[in-house]
Amino acid sequence: MAEKKQQSSAPAKDDNKITTRAANYSEWYQDIVYRAGLAENSDVRGCMVIKPNGYAIWENMQKALDGLFKATGHVNAYFPLFIPKSFFSKEEQMAEGFAKECAVVTHYRLKSIPGQGVVVDPEAKLEEELIVRPTSETIIWNTYRNWIQSYRDLPLLINQWCNVVRWEMRTRLFLRTAEFLWQEGHTAHATQQEAEAETLQMVRVYQKFAEEWMAMPVIVGPKSEGQKFPGAIYTLCIEAMMQDGKALQAGTSHFLGQNFAKAFDVTFQNTEGKREHAWATSWGVSTRMIGGLIMTHSDDNGLVIPPRLAPTHVLICPMGRTDEERAPAIAAAEKLAAELRALPREDFFGFQPISVKLDLDFKNSPGFRFAEGELKGIPVRVELGPKDLEKQACVVARRDIPGKEGKTMGVPLTEAASRISNLLREIQANLYNRAKTFRDANIRSADSYEQFKEMIEQPGFIWAHWDGTRETEDKISEETKATIRCIPFDRPLEEGTCMVTGNPSQGRVLFARSY
Amino acid sequence: MAEKKQQSSAPAKDDNKITTRAANYSEWYQDIVYRAGLAENSDVRGCMVIKPNGYAIWENMQKALDGLFKATGHVNAYFPLFIPKSFFSKEEQMAEGFAKECAVVTHYRLKSIPGQGVVVDPEAKLEEELIVRPTSETIIWNTYRNWIQSYRDLPLLINQWCNVVRWEMRTRLFLRTAEFLWQEGHTAHATQQEAEAETLQMVRVYQKFAEEWMAMPVIVGPKSEGQKFPGAIYTLCIEAMMQDGKALQAGTSHFLGQNFAKAFDVTFQNTEGKREHAWATSWGVSTRMIGGLIMTHSDDNGLVIPPRLAPTHVLICPMGRTDEERAPAIAAAEKLAAELRALPREDFFGFQPISVKLDLDFKNSPGFRFAEGELKGIPVRVELGPKDLEKQACVVARRDIPGKEGKTMGVPLTEAASRISNLLREIQANLYNRAKTFRDANIRSADSYEQFKEMIEQPGFIWAHWDGTRETEDKISEETKATIRCIPFDRPLEEGTCMVTGNPSQGRVLFARSY
Ligand SMILES: [Zn+2]
Ligand SMILES: [Zn+2]
Q1: A469: Cβ contacts below 8 Å, ≥ 6 apart
Q2: Where does it live in the cell (chains A, B) (predicted)?
Q3: Which residues of chain A make contact with B139, given a CB cutoff of 8 A?
Q4: CATH 3.30.110.30 matches B443-512
Q5: CB of A392 within 8 Å of any CB in chain B?
Q6: Would you tell me which residues 61-90 of chain B have a C-beta closer than 8 angstroms to some C-beta of chain A?
Q7: CB pair distance less than 8 Å for A77 and B6
């Protein structure tokens, strides 16, 4: 077979430099995703390959989220990948919302034609086409019908980790892909009140995860009518600000009312012996969060990962020009690594040991090796050179503060492990505070539509009055490409008039351009 | 909408009893899967719903296996669900092996016709059909082409956790389903020797997992030519004996040679500057293992789960007829639960705390409550009644030994936590030993084809001489429905003659009927 190499899907540049954020934010993002080995486009249109460095972040996200779900009483299960086409017709909004972008299975067999490869066997046509799930409300509520008979069967508090497919035409690694990984919670309740409490609880779980693990501050509140999930009564969301001032919807929690129970005939006998339809919620976050993580913290040197989600916490670089110099540096590095790994397992790191990598790549210059560690986003680097060792000390560099400012010289080796353990906590807090300061500095208020139109050309979120109608929302979106991101729970109460129609408004809502 | 309940997919019987193994082994299996809440058939042909109790076992399997993979240097990644049809033609054996049973995506859009629901949009036809992955060698090796340039890029030691689809016509929960969950490792190496060592290492990892976590003894060795993976040079496997004497292939590790590197043009520059094709392995285990777990240990009272994989380790049942009797029993139960949960996290339980459930369901009789715990397979039950409490003691019952024999009365509450912790280890060992004793007692030798044909009607494995040819293997399989399960690594060396052809044989191989 011919040995022709297919063109790589990596950026064409060979200079190994990351584009700066100032030069081209979108190229900067793509450079980081490729250069840090997080993901790449596959030969299947719109589908990404999540590379080991990217997947390791997802695994840490999964562990943390899964722990939060279980702590709030949820269990995991798994439902089919395929959804019969007829299920889509049962809930009207769902059909409208997802029909335009779904992968359809029509046949169940190929046949081999010798010399010609394989073709679809026309005789193996499905009676009813199957849709690759874009989300699983329909198949799950069809299943719940048999699981829910009495109020004693409720609540059902179930989550699923899986892949879903939405046939997106314009894709972007992590942020928008045809196939992505996510979790989807689907709960059933006996009362509206309980389902609404669940909807709120889960968006608060997402907030906690975003703020305490991702170190990404978020704004929490309901979506407007124009932005809610198809099939939901209302949608609560967490919204984060990226470094270019755009919004990223990072998680949503939907109160579905009795829509799916009615569509799939899910009823239960209540305490008084009467049959009622069950109340539903659903909530999800996806690998899109990795995109949000990158764009919240990373810098022109590469990826920055908050320690609680970092696959590797500490990179130790022994140095030396000769074997004589290297041997004691390697020994000290191994000793420190062992000490770090042996620290007591703590909740902060999900009861996992601190993860340490030894860089023994002496072929490259220290500068190159340090830059590689920075590119990959490892939170702490330890430098162990002959001069440090003379003093039984090391240099500790923190990734969140690049350059000399982030370096502490002369850290005694006897104290290094415990100081690094504390430093990891400090970095986590610093990343959150820095992102919050940035975000808060980039939220402004517009008092007229004129002002709004000028402001929206600058990065950031805008507080503005809106009359609460779908029409006005759609008009603003068409004219400015900005959408209502959220009606924050903690917005100030302030009566005013809609910037577009002049009709009364009960308070400002948050507008932004978004991913 | 009409409130008609769809017929449940659960067995029709209402008597709540599990069919005994002796009465009908296959119904017994199905009863356990349904009654213990492990899985059920969905409305999508061949696809199962893995229910929370079943999925919790899978999660524990994943944790243990993932730990073993990482301890041997592997990392996780994620590759696309879809495979372009043309990829199937590139490796001939793959195409032949999987083409007959795959789900084909031909369209990417539905359209809504008001009043009529949704139909497939004929204008949204894919130029090239996509296959839902039945296994990912092709898409992964297509990706590896860009990842592998030099010997420095090797080895690639990558694993993926995902769903796959094989359009099976006759399905059985966990054992054979159209969609199932699995892991698939795909490694690339610079030398044949290294790839073969990896193939062996991974089947040994599977053996370790089967024996030390699943408490399921396995036989390890290569498959015969007729049973190997399409596209492999050879396949190593672990084979277990179920309680009906049938074999279950529980995991496979394939040495793929350079087949996929050649099919997808994956070459690297070796240390001498010459380009070579990379060497490949792949290896996988799936949710099928849950079927094997059930059929290895469970009994006529229900599920039996080895402690290292049990989602709940201990069920504590406080008892009492009045509130006055119940209150101190509940208090003692809560105290014991807290003590068990607070035991130091140990490797044996994957550094997870011991999982304890309190059964406060006083509406039901103690007998009913105990039976429920047994049905679900919880390894240890603690009974806390008024008479036990008078003596500051409890009853500890082990699930692996049903009835009075498995009960220890008068266990002092002060000692209960540590004794239960030890008992869990004892149960794990006992389950393994019992399964091994059973298996070893059900392996016999046949010295003629006559004898073989009689013996194969009885449960168990058969050692027999075979001439090593595909023809003879196929003949035996057609005539007896028994296949060569494995050519065990540790088979005794014994020259003989093939029971069918009389041709020379270097040693006996293991035959059985299988799942
Ligand atoms: Zn109804
Ligand atoms: Zn080639």
Answers
A1: A501, A503
A2: Cytoplasm
A3: 42-44
A4: yes
A5: no
A6: 75-86, 88-89
A7: no
Report CA-CA distances (Å) from A450 to A455, A480, B72.
Answer: 9, 11, 62
- Do B443-512 and B307-438 fall under one CATH topology? no
- CB contact under 8 Å between A109 and B88, yes or no, is no
Tokens encoding A318: 């022994």
d(CA A261, CA A185) in angstroms, rounded, equals 16
Cβ-based neighbours of B402, under 8 Å, separated by 6 or more: B299, B301, B374
B277 alpha carbon, closest ligand: 2
Helix, strand or coil for residue B50? strand
| Spacing of C-alpha B246 from chain mean position | 15
- The top-level CATH class assigned to A307-438 is alpha beta
Is B161 in CB contact (< 8 Å) with chain A? no
Give B-chain residues touching A109 at CB under 8 angstroms.
99-102, 104, 167
Nearest CA in chain A to B3: A265
CB pairs under 8 A between A and B: 234
Ligand 1 midpoint to CA A462 (Å): 43
Q: Which helix (H) or strand (E) holds A142?
A: helix A137-147
Tokens representing A440 are: 């808060």
Instruction: Give the domain ranges of chain B.
Output: 47-297, 307-438, 443-512
Comparing CB atoms, the residue among B99, B163, B167 nearest residue A111 is B99
Rounded distance between C-alpha atoms, residue B30 and residue A187, angstroms: 27
Each residue's pLDDT tens digit in chain B (515 positions)?
333 333 344 444 445 789 999 999 999 999 999 999 999 999 999 999 999 999 999 999 999 999 999 999 999 999 999 999 999 888 778 777 888 899 999 999 998 887 777 899 999 999 999 999 999 999 999 999 999 999 999 999 999 999 999 998 889 999 999 999 999 999 999 999 999 999 999 999 999 999 999 999 999 999 999 899 988 999 999 999 999 999 999 999 999 999 999 999 999 999 999 999 999 999 999 999 999 999 999 999 999 999 999 999 999 999 999 999 999 999 999 999 999 999 999 999 999 999 999 999 999 999 999 999 999 999 999 999 999 999 999 999 999 999 999 999 999 999 999 999 999 999 999 999 999 999 999 999 999 999 999 999 999 999 999 999 999 999 999 999 999 999 999 998 899 999 999 999 989 999 999 99
Establish if B6 touches chain A: CB-CB under 8 angstroms. Answer: yes
B483 reaches A (C-beta below 8 A):
no
Tokens of A218: 């978020």
What does the alpha-carbon distance between residue B175 and residue A515 come to, in Å, rounded to a whole number?
43
Q: Distance of CA B512 to CAs A427, B449, B450, Å? A: 59, 14, 15
Residue A230 burial class via C-beta count within 10 angstroms: exposed 0-12, middle 13-18, buried 19 and up: middle
Closest CA to A295 of A406, A457, A456, A175: A175
Buried b (16+ CB within 10 A) or exposed e, A179-192: bbbbbbbbbbbbee
CB A160 within 8 A of CB A77: yes
